[in-house]
Backbone:
């Protein structure tokens, strides 16, 4: 329906004419219901009369403003306009008047056109003012009117350029032409899509809102620039939308570069596929030719993307190197981007919606959309140069502040320090000796920004794990048997105990480290635990294996691709920085996401759920594939609690020689006098405050400089260089630059010798203008810190690998971490204070078991349908679309891949690789994660996570006595505060989980060798708070003595006996089945640790005797899903016996009466320590006697029950033998279809 | 007896140098891993080699186009020497990224028409990177594929789709078909004529998207366990019989190269 507008004019009315013309041409669906003027002689009224429009003249002369407005309102009322359109109406409207035109969103439906780029040049003589000011670009603004003059939400802006020979008249004529085009177009947009479609564009980086930026880059650099587009040979026939590479080249003053034939030939060779593509190369100012060409080809929209200044541009760096390699002698600086052409019928908002997160990300990219139908040339993007005017001087930060000022200081500088810590810092600087020393060193009494920032990074939760080291006053209202006195023979029984209170001195020391210490006497293979960047275990006489898992949650929430990419590259560097340097040999990645659904919460600062998933997946793909490290194992887990903060666990295994040039390879040998050497990428503003920012909840002010993109190619070169340097004996110590940058890496290594001096002026920068503190704490990627004395040899090797290497200081034994610029000290901190001066947190925790009411209905009539439903559940369905995009075989060691079997569809429980090619031993990598249990019982959750990781490893043939574990806690903020009211409960859950972890580690004889925690996984924008479910990831590595004896999960042969081995009880609470039936239940599973540990030993023995054909763990979806997966993986079938299944289900120690005789529950219930094993008939006797022979190991706690047989036909049959009744009959194709239907997401297809 | 020398290019983002060298050693070569900078500084090294391997990986991060920048580096430093080496019958094996580099250099499918490309390797039709095992039919037009008929190897690439020159003549198309060494049994990436590998007319330059070095041990095959048990099943006795490493298709390709030198 056409909108009704009343046009208010004072003058000539050329805009009225343009609007009417547009209506006449049927372009604009609007009806001008009245034309009103305050000037009865206005030419506009004549125009209106000519068009037979109602005309109203309300002379303002001789009336007060109030009276005049009243008259105008009365005059307009009968016409009931939807909008007032001010087309050169020279009266200021009052709030009272405007309030009559208020819409539902609080906007006034009054639209004004103003001939300048507001907020520049408001007022009556905008053309004149702009012209006299000497602007090179001006424009037209259309905005909603508010109480202020020439003010209100901008609806659209268009620009025009002043030409060299412009007079005021010609300048104004140029502007009027734009006015006449823009005004009808904006009205059309309102008529077609509503006012909101335009208001939403406010503040977005599209069209012309960045004119200011263009002006500032009109410096001397860019004027010598050229622009290159790589276009398909037959653009007209290429279809649409078209995406083309776009480059901005800065040839540093090479005159006539755009027409230089040699340069053009080189660009063609380097940038284009000569079969299929052409290169367009013009001086930047001549790009309008392209626009004309594309206009003529009928394209309606042209959009261009480039990186924001300072964002890592890997493509551009490679182009620069390629140009050099091709023999080009001119120095060329490159920025890369892309051009997009559309000819669809879209408005600007639709173009933007289509491109956002697909073609650009607002955090890292600049994106501008041009309407090719506009009569004036669009203002195109220029070279994205970083302009940091001057290098800021170090600042002194006085700490004689009130408590609230201290807190403000911490917040404003993103220090993430609490008041106690601020006090401790103040106290340090007030100490007499410190004051004297600083006076002697010519330093200010209060800390410089360099010093304060270094302390903040070092003391961050991220680096110091303050919560895990806190003193905790714990209160429990209902607890399991005390784990502190738990013996190996005990089982967990869930006995209610009186409320107790106790004090835990440190979760880390009491549980995590304590468990490993207790196992140390039994495990001679623990070479380096909890001290280095990764834990190291002995592999054989010559080699050690190291393993580490990190998280990169906060960065992945802001910019998923860069966040995940830097996550995986970061943990690779942890491995590279272990001992004297280890080689990364495998990656494992676990993602926790919210499954995209319409009822998920959405807030303006949250990315779309699908974009997070796509970005993270792609980031890990590039991180792993491009680095040549196989992604062998992983998991994807969905829960709505991860909507705002996804969890991105990135893990890497590595191998290192036990002896390096006569030195112990898994230790560092840095000594006094060694140089500090920085290798790899340069330092920029990217990644400043990463460590402290990850230690806070995400909010609207989260610093965007914390976002960065990784460069796997540079890191691969660094890796090659380091491994060669290590073997040549050139490195005495090494660590990575991760959180906290140099402040952390040098600060940590300084502890070995007892001091270090960092020369900040020697550190290579990406661009000038960084403050000293920024250089010291920047987390710019792909950098390693080494100690060495053999600098010349290192330099030579670095040149070969094309890696930048710089000496940036010296390690010494001064006792201080000193930062200097040009020989002058700008920071001096006592190492002891820096590393041990942070006051310990003192926290309270309170855990109380939740009360859940059981609400369970009758079983569904069709159990087959229920099974298919579960198979397509996001947490159960096939991960193939993700797996296929990760290289899981590079390096040649692949034994058990994520998907095995004849059809490559068998989802394996764990990965096996051969770390040393040709050597028989296999390395097993697995993981366990059960956050669904956390809110019921986080103690049980931890037990189950350990069990799952251990069990998965055992399933493929790992020796249970070889296992080593990592713990990664990702928790919602467990520190109570006014915004985090249930912090005590979350800390209580953490205490419970640590106890469970401790207990399971001891029971399974599987020590923790390293770990990490991320404790602030909350989103809070003031309107809503979303906290993740408490999550503990356990990652396991272990050994298969001979890869010939690995076992995969798919069924192997018809006639094989199917056994269910279990040591514990099934549960219904938190199961996928209960969730899909919308039941609630309090019935939790139970784990019999003694039985499970014994069962895993026996199963391993059976595998060593080749008695096991296949072995699969039971997890989400229970038995029926596990059997289905074994069928899908093999193409074989199974006949299952319903009675045997119920017997097996009810064999658990404390089976719940509510669930007796429930076949559905036996099929779909979930519990730990359950495995499906097939045994060939010829081995049956040996298999059975093995269990009897191991009676002493606790076999009485284990149930081993035959539940059916493998069949040759690809059919799953569930039979009730007494009734001869077929309860389920599903073919492998039906099962597979259900299992493979859910992923990928729709958006995957647009990639 | 001295084994013939195989030069395996490394560095600049090449990822598969170690396992390629391992496979070549198993096949009877003496493999030397050489950083591209070292080889370009000492191009005469090439003259002493019997085989030059360009392994898989992401040279120069696959930026611009895969194999593009490595080709630029080689073209401007040692293309002439490489031509001489090929003309003398030296073996060149380009795997995945190495294959892409050979195509970028204009050495495949026609190593005689210096640097005039007729095909291009572009993004997979799905737009996605793919890692899976594929079956291929063999056209025995290169010594690398002697005696083979159907083989299984893994592909691990994002840009493996052969695209023909848009205005190709019938002769040019026939030539490319003739030089096709491996054909995917299923259409995995949208490649022209399902081409997986190309060779030059003489057969001494061989480039393939799948990875032969990733199948030199029987247990690298995803169906190894399934076949192993099926084989055991067929045998009455209680022993496990399985296919032997020496029949692993990738190793056979590398051994063929070795035997062709006798």
Residues:
């Amino acid at each position: 329906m056409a909108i009704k507008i009343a046009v208010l004019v004072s003058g000539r009315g050329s805009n009225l004419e343009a609007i009417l013309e547009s209506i006449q041409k049927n372009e604009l669906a609007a009806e001008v219901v009245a034309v009103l003027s305050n000037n009865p002689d206005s030419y506009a009224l004549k125009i209106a009369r000519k068009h037979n429009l109602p005309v109203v003249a309300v002379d303002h002369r001789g009336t007060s403003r109030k009276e005049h407005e009243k008259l105008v309102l009365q005059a307009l009322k009968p016409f009931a306009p939807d909008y007032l359109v001010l087309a050169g109406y020279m009266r200021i409207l009052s709030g009272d008047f405007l309030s009559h035109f208020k819409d539902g969103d609080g906007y006034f439906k009054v639209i004004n056109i103003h001939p300048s780029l507001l907020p520049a040049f408001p007022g009556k003589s905008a053309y004149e003012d702009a012209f006299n000011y000497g602007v090179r670009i001006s424009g037209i603004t259309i905005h909603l009117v508010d109480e202020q003059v020439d003010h209100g939400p901008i609806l659209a802006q268009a620009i025009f350029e002043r030409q060299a020979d412009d007079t005021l008249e010609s300048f104004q004529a140029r502007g009027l032409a734009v006015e006449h085009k823009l005004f009808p177009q904006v009205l059309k947009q309102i008529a077609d899509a509503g006012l909101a479609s335009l208001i939403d564009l406010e503040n977005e980086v599209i069209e012309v809102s960045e004119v200011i930026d263009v002006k500032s880059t009109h410096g001397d650099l860019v004027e010598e620039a050229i622009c290159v587009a790589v276009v398909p040979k037959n653009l007209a026939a290429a279809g649409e939308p078209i995406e083309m590479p776009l480059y901005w080249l800065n040839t540093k003053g090479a005159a006539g570069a755009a027409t230089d034939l040699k340069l053009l030939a080189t660009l063609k060779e380097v940038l284009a596929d000569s079969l299929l593509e052409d290169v367009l190369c013009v001086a930047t100012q001549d790009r309008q030719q392209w626009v004309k060409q594309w206009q003529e080809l009928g394209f309606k929209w042209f959009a261009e993307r480039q990186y924001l200044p300072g964002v890592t541009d890997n493509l551009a760096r490679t182009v620069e190197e390629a140009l050099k390699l091709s023999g080009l002698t001119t120095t060329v600086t490159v920025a890369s981007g892309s051009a997009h052409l559309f000819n669809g019928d879209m408005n600007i908002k639709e173009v933007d919606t289509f491109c956002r997160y697909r073609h650009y990300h607002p955090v890292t990219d600049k994106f501008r959309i041009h309407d090719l139908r506009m009569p004036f040339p669009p203002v195109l993007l220029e070279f994205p140069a970083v302009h940091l005017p001057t290098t800021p001087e170090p600042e002194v930060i006085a700490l004689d502040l009130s408590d609230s000022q201290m807190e403000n200081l911490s917040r404003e500088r993103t220090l993430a320090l609490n008041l106690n810590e601020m006090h401790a810092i103040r106290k340090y600087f007030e100490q007499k000796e410190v004051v004297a020393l600083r006076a002697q060193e010519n330093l200010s009494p209060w800390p410089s920004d360099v010093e304060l920032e270094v302390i903040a990074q070092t003391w961050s939760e991220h680096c110091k794990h303050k919560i895990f080291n806190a003193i905790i006053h714990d209160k429990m209202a209902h607890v399991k048997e005390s784990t502190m006195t738990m013996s190996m023979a005990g089982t967990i029984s869930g006995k209610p105990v009186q409320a107790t209170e106790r004090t835990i001195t440190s979760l880390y020391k009491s549980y995590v480290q304590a468990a490993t210490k207790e196992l140390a006497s039994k495990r001679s293979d623990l070479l380096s635990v909890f001290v280095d960047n990764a834990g190291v275990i002995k592999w054989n006489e010559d080699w050690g294996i190291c393993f580490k898992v990190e998280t990169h949650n906060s960065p992945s929430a802001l910019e998923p691709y860069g966040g995940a990419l830097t996550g995986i590259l970061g943990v690779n560097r942890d491995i590279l920085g272990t001992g004297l340097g280890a080689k990364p040999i495998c990656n494992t990645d676990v993602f926790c996401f919210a499954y995209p659904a319409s009822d998920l919460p959405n807030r303006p600062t949250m990315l779309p759920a699908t974009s997070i998933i796509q970005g993270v997946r792609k980031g890990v793909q590039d991180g792993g594939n491009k680095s040549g490290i196989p992604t062998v194992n992983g998991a994807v887990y969905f829960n709505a609690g991860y909507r705002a903060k996804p969890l991105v666990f990135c893990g890497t295994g590595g191998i290192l020689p036990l002896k390096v040039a006569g030195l112990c390879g898994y230790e560092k040998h840095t000594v006094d006098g060694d140089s500090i050497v920085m290798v790899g990428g340069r330092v920029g503003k990217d990644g400043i405050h990463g460590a402290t920012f990850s230690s806070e909840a995400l909010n609207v002010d989260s610093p965007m400089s914390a976002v960065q993109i990784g460069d796997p190619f540079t890191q691969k070169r660094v890796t090659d260089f380091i491994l060669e340097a290590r073997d040549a004996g050139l490195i005495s110590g090494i660590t990575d630059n991760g959180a906290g940058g140099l402040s952390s890496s040098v600060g940590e290594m300084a502890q070995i010798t007892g001091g270090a001096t960092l020369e900040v002026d020697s550190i290579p920068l990406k661009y000038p203008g960084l403050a000293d503190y920024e250089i010291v704490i920047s987390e710019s990627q792909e950098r390693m810190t080494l100690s060495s004395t053999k600098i010349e040899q290192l330099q030579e090797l670095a040149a070969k690998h094309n890696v930048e290497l710089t000496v940036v200081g010296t390690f010494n034994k001064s006792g201080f971490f000193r930062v200097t610029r040009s020989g002058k000290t700008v920071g001096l901190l006592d190492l002891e204070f820096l590393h041990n001066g942070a006051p310990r947190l003192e926290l309270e925790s309170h855990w109380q078991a939740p009360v859940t009411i059981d609400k369970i209905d009758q079983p569904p009539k069709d159990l087959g349908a229920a099974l298919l439903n579960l198979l397509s559940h996001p947490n159960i369905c096939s991960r193939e679309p993700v797996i296929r995009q990760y290289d899981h075989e590079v390096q040649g060691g692949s034994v058990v891949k994520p998907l095995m079997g004849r059809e490559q569809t068998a989802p394996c429980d764990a990965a096996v690789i051969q770390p040393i090619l040709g050597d028989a031993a296999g390395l097993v990598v697995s993981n366990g994660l059960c956050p669904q249990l956390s809110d019921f019982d986080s103690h049980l959750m931890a037990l189950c996570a350990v069990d799952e990781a251990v069990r998965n490893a055992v399933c493929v043939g790992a020796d249970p006595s070889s296992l080593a574990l990592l713990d990664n806690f990702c928790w919602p903020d467990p520190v109570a505060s006014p915004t985090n009211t249930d912090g005590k409960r979350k800390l209580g859950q953490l205490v419970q989980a640590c106890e469970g972890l401790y207990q399971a580690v001891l029971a399974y004889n599987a020590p923790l060798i390293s770990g990490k925690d991320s404790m602030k996984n909350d989103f809070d924008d003031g309107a809503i708070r979303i906290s993740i479910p408490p999550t503990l990831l356990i990652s396991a590595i272990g050994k298969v003595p001979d890869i010939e004896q690995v076992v995969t999960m798919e069924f192997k042969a018809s006639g094989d006996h199917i056994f269910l081995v279990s040591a514990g009880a099934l549960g219904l609470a938190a199961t996928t089945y209960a969730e899909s039936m919308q039941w609630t239940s309090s019935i939790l599973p139970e784990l019999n640790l003694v039985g499970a540990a014994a069962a895993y030993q026996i199963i391993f023995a059976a595998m060593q005797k080749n008695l096991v054909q296949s072995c699969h763990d039971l997890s989400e979806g229970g038995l029926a899903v596990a059997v289905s997966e074994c069928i899908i993986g093999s193409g074989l079938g199974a006949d299952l016996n319903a009675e045997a299944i119920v017997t097996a289900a009810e064999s658990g120690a404390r089976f719940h009466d509510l669930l007796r005789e429930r076949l559905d529950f036996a099929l779909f219930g979930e519990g730990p320590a359950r495995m499906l094993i097939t045994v060939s008939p010829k081995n049956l006797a040996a298999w059975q006697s093995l269990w009897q022979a191991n009676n002493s190991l606790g076999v009485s706690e284990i149930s081993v029950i035959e539940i059916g047989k493998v069949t040759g036909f690809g059919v799953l049959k569930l039979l009730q033998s007494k009734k001869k009744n077929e309860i389920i009959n599903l073919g492998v194709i039906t099962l597979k279809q259900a299992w493979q239907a859910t992923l990928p997401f729709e958006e995957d297809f647009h990639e | 007896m001295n084994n013939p020398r195989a030069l395996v290019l490394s560095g600049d983002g090449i990822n598969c140098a170690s396992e390629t060298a391992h496979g070549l050693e198993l096949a009877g070569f003496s493999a030397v891993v050489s950083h591209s900078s070292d080889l370009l500084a000492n191009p005469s090294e090439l003259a002493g080699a019997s085989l030059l391997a360009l392994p898989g990986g992401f040279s120069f991060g696959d930026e611009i186009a895969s194999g593009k920048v490595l080709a630029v580096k080689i073209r401007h430093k040692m293309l002439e020497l490489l031509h001489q080496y090929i003309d003398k019958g030296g073996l060149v094996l380009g795997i995945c990224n190495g294959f892409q580099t050979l195509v970028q250099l204009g050495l495949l499918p026609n190593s005689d028409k210096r640097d005039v490309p007729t095909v291009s390797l572009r993004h997979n039709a799905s737009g996605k990177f793919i890692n899976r095992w594929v079956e291929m039919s063999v056209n025995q037009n290169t010594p690398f594929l002697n005696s083979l008929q159907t083989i299984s190897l893994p592909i691990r690439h994002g840009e493996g789709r052969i695209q023909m020159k848009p205005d190709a003549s019938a002769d040019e198309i026939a030539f490319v078909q003739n030089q096709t060494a491996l054909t995917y049994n299923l259409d995995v990436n949208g490649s022209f004529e399902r081409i997986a590998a190309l060779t030059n007319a003489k057969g001494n330059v061989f480039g393939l998207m799948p990875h032969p070095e990733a199948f030199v041990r029987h247990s690298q095959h995803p169906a190894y366990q399934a076949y192993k048990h099926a084989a055991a099943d067929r045998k009455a006795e209680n022993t496990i019989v399985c296919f032997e490493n020496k029949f692993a298709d990738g190793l056979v390709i590398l051994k063929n190269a070795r035997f062709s030198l006798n």
Remarks:
- Residues 1049-1247 of chain A form a domain with the Phosphoribosyl-aminoimidazole Synthetase; Chain A, domain 2 fold (CATH 3.90.650.10).
- The two ends of chain A are 37 Å apart (CA to CA).
